């Protein structure tokens, strides 16, 4: 995890030596989980989520973006609308560290070197990798495997951003993460020797959603977008 984080930071600072304008800031909001345990509401934050974000604006229409977000994921069968889950009564809570990198596209030009307040919807996608501890359910009890794993995923983020001053940009966004893992909620043990404890739809992977705001500070010289 440490080496991957250092690689991402090194790439960013190497590229930013020739960047014209870039952003650094924070993310704050909430998370919710969609899987084999708990409710299946698409946007229903029930745990806090906090992190840092950096962007390299390469044109008024697109930016390279990276972020690190910390959150807990929680699922409680008793809060589900499914009567079978309510009767089962499982629950879990696990912490994740997500690292994400990709590209952000704006619907309209977002040139911060023109005067006045401006805003635009945007889309973001790329790749995510989330570190989580491994658990499984033993006789209904959420039991640690004393290991951790990395879950790769694809972020699908929709947001709206606007500048609130010459150097501050405020944005609100909702971002679903489709993961290539079914282990986040403990429904599939990581250890193959515990495969008999798997349950739920093993053909459907886990999702989680971050809903929140970002506040970034932008700086750099006036851009020349002619090269890219």
TrEMBL record:
Q: What's one Pfam family here?
A: DUF6089
What are the coiled-coil residue ranges? Answer: none
Which stretch is the leader sequence?
A: 1-19
Statement: the UniProt record of this protein carries the keyword Signal = yes
Specify whether Signal is a keyword of the entry.
yes
- Annotated ranges, domain DUF6089: 4-227
Which keywords accompany this UniProt record?
Signal
The name this protein goes by in its record: DUF6089 family protein
């Amino acid at each position: 995890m440490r080496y991957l984080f250092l690689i991402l930071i090194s790439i960013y600072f190497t590229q930013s030596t020739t960047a014209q304008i870039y952003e650094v800031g924070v993310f704050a909001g909430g998370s919710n989980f969609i899987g084999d345990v708990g409710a299946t509401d698409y946007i229903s934050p029930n745990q806090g989520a906090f992190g840092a974000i950096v962007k390299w604006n390469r044109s008024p229409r697109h930016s390279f973006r990276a972020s690190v977000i910390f959150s807990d994921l929680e699922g409680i069968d008793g809060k589900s609308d499914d009567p079978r889950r309510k009767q089962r009564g499982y629950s879990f809570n696990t912490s994740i560290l997500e690292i994400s990198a990709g590209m952000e596209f704006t619907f309209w030009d977002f040139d911060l070197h023109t005067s006045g307040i401006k805003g635009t919807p945007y889309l973001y996608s790329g790749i995510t990798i989330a570190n989580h501890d491994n658990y499984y359910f033993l006789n209904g009890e959420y039991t640690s495997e004393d290991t951790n794993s990395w879950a790769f995923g694809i972020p699908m983020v929709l947001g709206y951003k606007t500048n609130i001053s010459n150097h501050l940009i405020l944005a609100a966004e909702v971002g679903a993460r489709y993961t290539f893992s079914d282990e986040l909620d403990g429904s599939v043990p990581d250890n193959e020797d515990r495969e008999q404890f798997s349950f739920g739809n093993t053909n459907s992977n886990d999702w989680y959603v971050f809903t929140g705001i970002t506040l970034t500070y932008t700086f750099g010289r006036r851009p020349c977008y002619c090269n890219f």
